[in-house]
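Input sequence (140 aa), recorded before submission:
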Amino acid sequence: MTKAEYENLLKRIQDNLGNTKKQSSGRFELPVVDVMREGQKTFLRNFSEFPKVLRRDPDKVLQYLSKEFAVPAERLGDKAMFIGKRDADDFTRLFRIYVKDYLECNTCKSPDTKIVKENRITFLVCEACGAKSTLKGKYA
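Predicted structure, C-alpha cell format:
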C-alpha cells in the first residue's frame, strides 16, 4: 500500500466517522408540530406521530396536553382537536416538558424508557442503564 492510498483510506474513514457523529447526536428528535386553526379550534394535524416517537399511550399524551392547556381535547383519527387558539410553539414547549418529565431517564438522560406500575406507584424504568425512578404525574 502506498502512502497516497493510505492517506486516502484515512480520509475516507475520518469522513465516515464525522457523519456518524452528526447522526448520533440527534438520535431522538420530536416531529415538527403541524397546527391548523379553524375558528376557535386548533387542530394538531400530526398528533399520531408523537405517541409513536415517544412510545407512550396516545390517550395519556392527549390527556397531558388537554390538562396543560386547560381546554377540552379530542382525537379525530390521526389529528387532535383543541378548543381555543394555540400556536405551534405552545405544543413544542409542552412536548419538550413531557419528554423531560415522563420520557428521559433521570440518571443517564436516555429516551429509551418504559412505564411500569407496581402497587399503585408508577415507575420510569430505563432500558439503557436500568435505573428506576418514581413518576409524580398521572400522564405517563
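Checked by second reader. The helical segments are 3-25, 49-54, 58-69, 88-102.
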